[in-house]
Amino acid sequence: MEIRELDLRDEASVHRHWDIGRLAEQASRPYDFYVPWETAWLTYSRGRDDFETVLLGAFEDGEMWGAASVVHPLYDNLHSASAEFYVHPERHRRGLGTALARAAEDVARGRGRRLLMTEAYAPPDEDSAGLLFARAMGFKDGLVDGMKVVDLVDTEDLWPDLEARTAPRQVDYRVVTWHDGVPEGLVEDLCRLNEMFVEEAPMGDLDVEPEKWDAGRVAEQQERNRRTGRRVVAAGALASDGTLVGLTEVMVNERATQRGFQSGTLVDRRHRGHALGLAIKLANHRQLRTLYPECRVLLTGNADVNAAMNKVNEALGYREVERCVELQKAI
Predict the structure, then answer these.
(1) Can you tell me the distance from the alpha carbon of 197 to that of 249, in angstroms, rounded to the nearest whole number?
(2) How far apart are CA 181 and CA 295, in angstroms?
(3) What are phi and psi of 11, to 5 degrees?
């Protein structure tokens, strides 16, 4: 067996790396939310301003059978890196994953990182091979997220009653929506909310620092999303003075518009208690149905201890299908 660092411009090698991950997830997860090849290739081959990515391949008999990625933040959280590990379903229990995990540690250490993070998915009530592997490699549980899906078509009839019941609590606020670009007047507030997210959202025992956001980083993200086919559908809550105090976003890939990923939802703590989280998610669900009527299923993750957001998602019809255990290891 040999571990090699891949050339991110070598399309054949990167495609094999991507395909190993696709097959591994297909064999172990209940829903297909794997990134389309075209988006993965555009991301790896062009690179990113905010992260450095290293791809590793585990080779046997001249062919790649294991794949790992090691991602190093460049704007914040410079103490850490995150990694993913995949082994082709036909080559389990041959030491490929162990070799990749050790190589990933070496890569992150070589870039001055002291902490390596990873994620492992498992059924709601039992451990998976991936989770047991991560723990065996010395990773410690940091946070457990319940991974949930909602069928927008099947739950659409819930929306009018939810809107009617919560509207009286929102008389001092206004809900706005946008897509594929943040309105110029909201960029500064969006940066403030993004920086607030790590401090306000449950992080368990994870060693994570707040991110640093400014207009330049927002513009970089928007351009990268446009170039790689990622579409962002968003809604926000405005206070009476016009300040953005709540935000929710859904990511839809233009090459897989039948599905979407519900990203973070946050309401400024000074404006909680008005059902704004529910209001902006309802507005965004409606916007999604208009923009992408073929987008039927959304996937999201919520920390088990996040009672408020779990209550919102339960009202919207989300149901848990698996767990995501976020783990970390001092290296």
Answers:
(1) 13
(2) 20
(3) -60, -40
Look at residue 313 in the predicted model and tell me its pLDDT. Answer: 96
The SS3 assignment for 221 reads helix
Longest CA–CA separation in the chain, Å: 67
213-261: per-residue pLDDT in tens? Answer: 999 999 999 999 999 999 999 999 999 999 999 999 999 999 999 999 9
Domain boundaries, the chain: 2-113, 148-325
First vs last C-alpha separation in the chain: 23
CB count, 10 Å around CB of 51? Answer: 14
- Exposure string for 145-178, b = 16+ CB within 10 A, e = fewer: bbbbbbebeebeeebeebbeebeeebeebebebe
Give residue 198's pLDDT: 83
In what helix (H) or strand (E) does residue 70 lie, and over which residues does it extend? strand 63-73
Domains 2-113 and 148-325 share a fold: yes
Residue 186 pLDDT greater than 90, yes or no: yes
Mean pLDDT in residue range 81-98: 96
Question: Yes or no: is domain 148-325 CATH 3.40.50.2000?
Answer: no
pLDDT of residue 252: 98
Q: What CATH code would you report for 2-113?
A: 3.40.630.30
- For position 59, what pLDDT does the model report? 98
Nearest-10 Cα torsion for 291, 26, 203, 182 = -20
**Which secondary structure element, helix H or strand E, spans residue 263, and what is its range?**
strand 259-267
Q: Is the distance from CB of 295 to CB of 257 less than 8 angstroms?
A: yes
For residues 205 and 305, give the distance between their C-alpha atoms in angstroms, rounded to a whole number.
Answer: 12
If pLDDT is split at 50, 70 and 90, which confidence band does 199 have?
confident
Cβ atoms 87, 59 nearer than 8 A? no
